[in-house]
Structures are given as structure tokens and as C-alpha cells.
Amino acid sequence: MVKLEKGLGDKFIVAAIQLCSNEDKNRNLKLVSQFIDNAVKDGANIIVLPEMFNCCGHTEVMVENAEEIPGSTINILSDKARTHGIYIVCGSIFEKVEKNKVHNTSVIVGRNGEILAKYSKVHLFDVDIQDKIRYKESEHVIAGQKIVIVNMGSFEAGLSICYDLRFCELFRTLALRGAKIIFVPSAFTSTTGEYHWDPLIKARAIENQVFVVAANQIGTSPNNITCYGKSMIVDPWGRVLAKAKDNENVITAEIDLNLLDEVRAEIPLFEHRRTDLY
């Protein structure tokens, strides 16, 4: 468990930024900075970016643009966090591991600009959907080995990335370890997103009685893969607090942790869990 500085309290504003990132890192980072400023104007205390927000396209290009952490991308966001006094869930970027090998890594930056947590994607996107999409993330990405919980003073948050959303065991483990909010930076494709995105996000929120903040890519990247968008903020009852339009934009919602406590008291899933059977 990674400790953060003084917490936000029971009520605060979270924002999810939806982008159509490409292979131009300067363009992407400039746009991200603008959206962060806009989210701050809307009162955001925590801002969540999508997966591969700084460079998204052909895998070879993304690997070439991989960085160490901290590096230029995280340093820019650290400055933003420090300037505005906010938390930034830095989506994910390709982190250098060895020649032609990377981690797909999410970073949380605190209000003083320091790195508070780092999570490398555990479940890699290796799929072959006939006549629609073939992608093998494991060709260049090394899977992470650690589940990450961040203590934010008055609550704990869990980290995940995109394809992790399909693995209920990860989300249940995060919840059992105390997570009340789970962040899901994503580049979820339109091929599967049309049928799976909404129900998976709502299911992870309902079954674990947590808030889920999912910031997704949208549109077609240079590798001709189209992402679904529909970034969402969902409460523990499964209600959609905010949902993005079909373009690059930012959504915000108030998180009230008292609601989570109410839901867990009304339907005590964790209290009635049959640990003797699992």
C-alpha cells in the first residue's frame, strides 16, 4: 500500500479526460494540459487520463517513445499537479524496461507534484477477433506483477488499466484491500466496447460497491484501431454520474463517500461473503 498526503475528505470532484491521442507526443501533452486546466476550472480535485494518452498508434512507435518514470511526460504532469494542487491519475504510458520491451504503466501524481504510486498493467490485451481486430500487447509489453492500492487519507483507491476491467478477481481484490474508488484508464476498442464497456464498468462498481472512474480513448489512432470513448463515472449503486460525448472532452462528477457507506450497509456483500467456500 502506497501512502498519499493529507486526504480530500468525504466529498470531492473527480474528472475523466477523453482523448483521441496520436503519435505526436507534443500535441497530445499540449491537449492534455488544456483539458486539465479546464477540469480545474470545473472544480476537479482528481483528474484521470486515458491509457497511452501521451502516444497512441503503431506499437513500434510507442515503444520508441517509451520513457523512464519519472521522465518528461510525468514531469509535465507533476508540474500541473503542483500548480493546481490536484491529484492526477496519469492514465498510462509505455515505461522503458529493456530494449524493445516496456511496461504499460499508470502513475498517480500528488498535489505537491510527487509520484505517489505506480501500477504496471497486469492483464495484457492479447485478442484475435475474427475479421475485426487482432492485437497482441504481450509482443512488446511485460505484464506487471503487483496489485496497487493508494491510501488517500480518508479513503483508499485502486489502480487498473483497460483490459483489467474484464477480470473481476482483480477488482474484488482491490475492494477487499479497502478500495472505495477504482480508476480505469483505457483505450477500449469500439469492436468490443459497443457490447461490453457499459456493462463491465457497471458490474465492477455494483459487485464491489465502489466508485469506478473510467477515462477512455476515442476515435481512430494511426494503427487503424478505433476506440469506443464513452468515458464514465459510476457510483456503487451502478448509476452513471457522468458520461462523455463522442469527442475529445472532459467529464466531472462529485464523489460522496457517504453514499458508498450507505450502499454497503444496505446490501452487506462483504459481511455476508462465504469465505469458507472460496
Automatic annotation (TrEMBL):
Pfam family name, one: CN_hydrolase
InterPro entries with a match to the protein in the record: C-N_Hydrolase, C-N_Hydrolase_sf, Nit1/2_C-N_Hydrolase
Residue ranges of the TM segments: none
Residue span(s) of domain CN hydrolase: 12-257
EC number: 3.5.-.-
Keywords: Hydrolase
Single GO MF annotation: hydrolase activity, acting on carbon-nitrogen (but not peptide) bonds, in linear amides
Name by which UniProt lists this protein: N-carbamoyl-D-amino acid hydrolase
Organism: Candidatus Scalindua rubra
Highest classification ranks of the organism: Bacteria, Pseudomonadati, Planctomycetota, Candidatus Brocadiia, Candidatus Brocadiales
